[in-house]
Design goal:
mainly alpha; 70% helix; elongated; Prenylated_rab_accept_PRA1; membrane
């Protein structure tokens, strides 16, 4: 049945609609019911398989075993596809600067949670919803983890640490010289010095493996972020108290 267009209908922007879903708690409810429905389907399938295997005669036992094996491999393939779909998700598509302006969620009760706070996503759609929402909620936690991983990478690669410190010292020297000799009055000289500083910084970062430390920290933090956000259940977020 087709509905005629209503000139009085209002279109709600996606960010506003998602904010309403988040504040009203429907995202957590949707995630919980999706997991519960997938668990119920899996339980009914296993129950029907066990009942059929118990009622089947010995001549049909091979067919029952093959059907159970096929169901196991189908479930395994479905989970592999779901995990692989995490690699195709753009986790930063709905991230905004406002997500970094709030308070950092507590690490124990908020970020890590308990064993019951994690479950395997039943579908790629549920994994996508979890990744987008959890990254918005724990953006400051993931940023802190990246800093920790980058510090560990610099500790394991002393030359990279030397290159990073040398680059910072180079630009501090440029700032000191600019303030002392008033490069602002000579734009051409300032532009030339900036170009020389950029080339020197690129040489330092390349030959002292700073980019390798940065790449390793990005790879580890990205993997941890995707896996944590995909397997972390959506829990009700605390709403700020409003005065009457």
């Amino acid at each position: 049945m087709a509905f005629s267009s209503n000139p009085l209908s209002l279109s709600v922007p996606d960010p506003a609609f998602e904010s309403w879903l988040r504040d009203s708690g429907y995202l957590e409810l949707l995630d919980h019911r999706t997991s519960a429905a997938a668990a119920a389907v899996a339980a009914s399938t296993s129950a029907s398989s066990s009942s059929s295997s118990a009622a089947a005669p010995s001549s049909a036992s091979d067919d029952v075993v093959s059907s159970i094996t096929g169901g196991f491999f189908a479930s395994l393939l479905s989970r592999i596809v779901t995990v692989s779909s995490l690699l195709t998700i753009n986790p930063f598509s709905k991230l905004s600067a406002d997500d970094f302006s709030g308070d950092t969620p507590p690490w124990t009760t908020g970020f890590f949670g308990t064993c019951d706070s994690y479950s395997f996503p039943s579908s790629s759609q549920q994994a996508r919803m979890r990744v987008h929402e959890n990254i918005k909620r724990f953006a400051r936690n993931y940023a802190t983890l990246f800093i920790v991983f980058f510090a560990c990478a610099l500790y394991q690669m002393p030359l990279a640490l030397v290159g990073l410190l040398a680059s910072l010292a180079l630009w501090e020297l440029f700032k000191y010289c600019s303030d002392r000799w008033k490069f602002d009055r000579h734009p051409s000289v300032r532009k030339l010095c900036i170009g020389i500083g950029q080339c020197a910084t690129a040489v330092l970062l390349t030959f002292l493996n700073v980019q390798m430390a940065l790449f390793s920290a990005l790879a580890v933090s990205y993997s941890v972020m995707i896996l944590h956000a995909g397997f972390r259940k959506l829990t009700p977020s605390k709403k700020p108290s409003r005065g009457r």
